Amino acid sequence: MNWSVVADVVNAGAVTIGVVFAASQLFDIRKQRKRDAMLGLVRSFQSGDFTTALRHINSLPDGADRAAIRATLGPDGEDQVFMIGLTFESLGVLVFRHEVTMDLIDDFFSGAIVISWRKLHVYVEEDRRDLGRETVWEWFQWLSERVAEREREINPVPAHVAHRDWT
Predict the structure, then answer these.
(1) Most buried of the four, 1, 11, 105, 135, by CB within 10 Å?
(2) Each residue of 78-121: pLDDT tens digit?
(3) CA–CA gap between residue 99 and residue 120 (Å, rounded)
(4) How far does Cα 117 stand from its chain's mean position?
(5) CB atoms closer than 10 angstroms to residue 87
(6) Quick one: pLDDT band at residue 41, thresholds 50, 70, 90?
(7) What is the domain partition of the chain in residue ranges?
């Protein structure tokens, strides 16, 4: 038996196992980092200010304009619109860049996004006109349209129905 050949085979095997182990560790680290980022994102939206603003936006009539928002929500109403709009604007960018998955958005925010856009799209059009910039609220609109498309293709089923047999 040639010990040199045996040593080469053992060495090659050890290197291969090391590479596979390192790749596995990198995969696990990326997965954990993405999970931590998603949990951090979700937690960041669980503030009292955000939930109050979302509740107030939900109370608006569909297609509310600036005057309706001021009449319904008072002088701070537009600040609440901005909080919700910029939050969903940020989520839109994150989804587009594949930093956050549409599955996560669907599970946590799809209803809120679609309803908020339904309530605020006229306000957004006014804002774009007043500011002379079509890119205002662009990612909020983009995200709302993607969620609505997804819901047309896959009829949304509430979690309490879809997963009633979960154990």
Answers:
(1) 105
(2) 999 999 999 999 999 999 998 888 988 888 889 999 999 999 99
(3) 26
(4) 15
(5) 20
(6) confident
(7) 1-44, 46-158
